[in-house]
Amino acid sequence: FKRxxxxxxxxxxxxxxxxxxxxxxxxxxxxxRVARFGGDEFMVxxxxxxxxxxVEDVARKLLAAIEVPVDADxxxxxxxxxxxxxxxxxxxxxxxxxxxxxxxxxYLAKSRGRxxxxxxDPASVQTAYDALVMESQLVxxxxxxEFVLHFQPQVRTLDQALIGAxxxxxxxxxxxxxxxxxxxxxxxxxxxxxxxxGQWVLREAVRCARRWREAGLSVAPIAVNLSTVQFQSAGFVxxxxxxLQEENVPGELLxxxxxxxxxxxxxPDVMHKLARLKALGICIAxxxxxxxxxxxxxxxxxxxxxxxxxxxxxxxxPHAQDAAAIARAIIQMAHSLGQSVIxxxxxxxxxxxxxxxxxxxxxxxxxxxxxxxxxxxxxxxxRT
Length: 384
Ligand code: C2E
Ligand code: CA
Ligand code: CA
Hints:
Helices cover 48% and strands 20% of the residues. The chain is of the alpha/beta class. Strand 14 (340-343), helix 14 (349-358) and strand 15 (362-363) form a beta-alpha-beta unit. The structure holds ligand C2E and calcium ion (CA) (2 copies). One calcium ion binds next to loops.
């Protein structure tokens, strides 16, 4: 509705509302009530509905009626309604509460992809509402530049010489302070915000890599985490290529971390994408290795440079037999396929010693350094 108003003007917006209003009234019985509640929201009161099924029938009919494209100035516009339902007296004790809960249920419907109806449900309504609030905050955060990258040094196991760094995103939230990716990446992925966010990370990481190189610091490559949505999006490789070109940075300064799951489906397509990334000079690493269902055939056939042993295995080293066996197996397998191995989340000397003995050539973790803001990272590099 907002888009129609903005692009076609208020007259077209009014006509759209009228059309929808007529469709709603035509779907209902004479004894039902309908009113426009404000903006593009309508309220329907079904006094004679006896049970949930009756309401579901009406909701389905409303969806079908409203979804028929509307003719606005000769242009066909599709309307995607979201319906929230609250029942009296089960869901509410007062009219105001009934309206409030129907409203929350509508947010739930919106968060489930729109063009659907949802009944009021206290628990999921809160989560959906939080996600929606976060979605709009995330959009603003991008515009206001509230994201930052922290960098965690990656070192050679033998002498702890710096060989690169992993870029990890944080959100400098105006009210809540520094937020970690587990808080907002899942929301961004659901809401398709992951594409602009991922692009931002890529560009920022590449810029830092260039700045450090110009300053004479040898910290490249910088490893960037990818999300599935990003890797599978159309034009992903071109987008990476464009960033490198625009920032005037060779692909050798960039490493991409892909999780096992991203490499699982559509092997020919994945193969093609990786080959093109490699042709740009980019290093490919498999993140969280051992936690998914990666097929060994994929590991052999895909152009993978590096395998990253997940923190969950590293934390139990060296004493837990199963973790030690898995780490050892990953290292041997990767080496026999000509790939190198990096361990993440190394926190103590015993873990380092075990990994060194097994021939794991690189590592990162709090033992070396926690992820640091760009400036602190620079300072760390200059000191070591
Ligand atoms: P990950 O790729 O497995 O990253 C490693 C996580 O382990 C990071 O958490 C890092 O701060 C933490 N870590 C590093 N060393 C240690 C250690 O010695 N001990 C312990 N306990 N933890 C350690 P973080 O920064 O909270 O990131 C969490 C996840 O969020 C990452 O897991 C990654 O999957 C995702 N992520 C981070 N940045 C990005 C990004 O820019 N894009 C995407 N798509 N995902 C990101
Ligand atoms: Ca990672
Ligand atoms: Ca991990």
